[in-house]
Design brief:
mainly alpha, two-stranded parallel sheet, 12 helices, globular, membrane, EmrE-like, transmembrane helix, transmembrane
C-alpha cells in the first residue's frame, strides 16, 4: 500500500474513533484521575468505547505501515489533517459552537499545516537507527509522568459550584504528549527489523500501549467536561509537534538544509504554538445565564440517545429562603405557598382637635419589702407616688406635623 494512502487511512480511523470516544464518555459515570482503578473498569466495560478502540487499533496498524515508507516530515502534515473532519463531526453531531477567538486559532492551525506541508522539500532517505535507552528515558519519562501527575492532582481539587467552565486546554496538552509518545514508539516499531512476535523483545510495543492508554484515558475525562473541538485540536497540535521534534532527536531525521524550507518548518511550529496560546481558557459567560445553554441542533446519535451537550443542562434545584439565617440556599423543594410581602404599618391619624401626644403612663407605688412588683410596672418611691405625671415629650410621627399643646386657662378666662 502507498505510504500516503496508509497515512490518510490511519488518520481517518483515529479521529472517527475519537468521536466515538465522545459518545462513550457521555454515557459513562464521571471518571476521575484520582480513582484510577475505578476509571479503568468504567472505561473498559463500556461497549461503545470498545468500538472506538477497535477503530483506533485499525488506525495504529495503518500508521505502522505508513511510517515504514514515509519520513516524519511527510507523515506529520498528513496526520494533522485529521483534525478537520473531527471539527465538522463535533459541530454537526455534537452541536458545538465556537467563538470568533477560537475560529482565529483554527485558522492559525490551518496556516501552520500548510507551512508544514510546504517545508517538506526533498525528503531524506529512510534509515534504521538504534535508539539508546537513555534517549528513550529522556523522551518517554516526562511525557508520561507529568500528565499523569497533573490529572491525578487536579482531581483532588474540589469543584467550585460557581467556577467558570474551562475550554480544555490543559486536558488537550496532557493527552497530546502521551499520544505523541505512542506515535514515537510506533515509529521505532516500524523501523525495527524484528519479525512477528520478536517485536515483543523491544520496548516499543509496551511504550505504545502505556502511552496510548494514558492519553485515551485523559481524552475520555476531557470529553466529559469540555468540548471536543478544543480538546482534540490542542491534542493534535501538541502530539504532532512532539512527534516531529523528538523524532528528530531520537531517530536523527534531519530538518531541511536550505534556509527557505527550514524557515517554513520553524514558522509552522511557531504558528501552532501561537494558536494554542490564542485559545481562551474559559468558556464565555452568557448574558442570560438563567435561560440555559444556547439552542443547538440535537445530536444525531447513531446509538439512539442524545448526548448531554445537546440535551442542555440538568434542572437546578429552586432557591428557597432559610428561615433561620434569612439567606437563600438551594433546597430540594420550594415553599408550598410563599408569604406575600406585607406593607409597613402606618400610624393612625389623630382625631381633629386632639394633640398628638401619647397617653401618660400611670406609675405604681413600690410594694412593701418581700412583695414583688407586678411584671411590666415601674417601681416608684412612696414620696413621689402622688405627684402629677410629667408632661410627655411630643414627638412627630413622620406623617403629620406635631401640634402644640394649648396653654392652661388663666384666672380671668371663662
Amino acid at each position: 500500500m502507498n505510504g500516503i494512502v496508509a497515512a490518510f487511512g490511519a488518520t481517518g480511523l483515529y479521529y472517527v474513533g475519537f468521536a466515538i470516544f465522545k459518545l462513550a464518555a457521555d454515557r459513562m459515570e464521571p471518571v476521575r484521575g484520582n480513582r484510577i482503578p475505578r476509571t479503568v473498569w468504567v472505561v473498559l466495560t463500556n461497549w461503545i468505547f470498545l468500538v472506538g478502540l477497535a477503530l483506533v487499533l485499525g488506525g495504529l496498524s495503518l500508521q505502522i505501515l505508513a511510517l515504514t515508507k514515509l519520513s516524519l516530515g511527510i507523515a506529520v502534515p498528513v496526520f494533522m489533517s485529521g483534525v478537520v473532519p473531527l471539527i465538522l463531526i463535533s459541530m454537526i453531531f455534537f452541536g458545538e459552537r465556537m467563538t470568533a477567538r477560537e475560529w482565529l486559532s483554527l485558522v492559525l492551525i490551518g496556516a501552520a499545516m500548510v507551512l508544514l506541508a510546504l517545508s517538506i522539500g526533498d525528503p531524506p532517505p529512510l534509515e534504521t537507527v538504534d535508539v539508546p535507552l537513555w534517549k528513550l528515558g529522556v523522551v518517554v519519562g516526562p511525557a508520561i509522568l507529568v500528565p499523569l501527575l497533573i490529572i491525578i492532582l487536579s482531581d483532588y481539587r474540589p469543584d467550585g459550584r460557581h467556577a467558570r467552565p474551562i475550554t480544555g486546554i490543559a486536558y488537550g496538552l496532557s493527552s497530546g504528549f502521551p499520544v505523541g509518545t505512542a506515535e514515537l514508539a510506533i515509529k521505532g516499531w516500524s523501523d525495527n527489523g524484528a519479525k512477528g512476535l520478536d517485536i515483543l523483545s523491544t520496548p516499543y510495543p509496551y511504550i505504545t500501549v502505556l502511552s496510548a492508554a494514558l492519553g485515551f484515558g485523559i481524552l475520555v475525562a476531557a470529553f466529559q467536561r469540555c468540548r471536543v473541538t478544543i480538546v482534540a485540536t490542542v491534542m493534535t497540535v501538541s502530539a504532532k509537534t512532539y512527534l516531529l521534534l523528538m523524532g528528530t532527536f531520537m531517530y536523527a531525521e534531519p530538518w531541511p538544509s536550505d534556509f527557505q524550507h527550514f524557515s517554513l518548518r520553524l514558522g509552522a511550529l511557531a504558528l501552532g504554538a501561537i494558536a494554542v496560546l490564542q485559545f481562551p481558557r474559559h468558556d464565555p459567560v452568557r448574558e442570560n445565564a438563567g435561560s440555559g445553554y444556547e439552542e443547538v441542533p440535537p445530536a444525531q446519535d447513531p446509538f439512539g440517545q442524545a448526548s448531554p451537550a445537546a440535551r442542555g443542562p440538568l434542572p437546578q434545584a429552586p432557591l428557597v429562603r432559610d428561615p433561620l439565617a434569612g439567606i437563600p440556599f438551594a433546597g430540594a423543594t420550594p415553599l408550598s405557598s410563599p408569604t406575600p410581602p406585607q406593607s409597613p404599618v402606618q400610624p393612625d391619624a389623630p382625631e381633629p382637635g386632639q394633640p398628638n401626644v401619647p397617653p401618660p403612663r400611670q406609675p405604681n407605688v413600690a410594694e412593701p419589702p418581700g412583695q414583688p412588683n407586678p411584671p411590666g410596672q415601674a417601681i416608684v418611691p412612696p414620696d413621689q407616688a402622688n405627684q402629677p405625671p410629667a408632661q410627655a415629650e411630643e414627638r412627630p410621627t413622620g406623617r403629620y406635623p406635631a401640634r402644640p399643646t394649648p396653654p392652661p386657662p388663666g384666672p380671668y378666662e371663662g
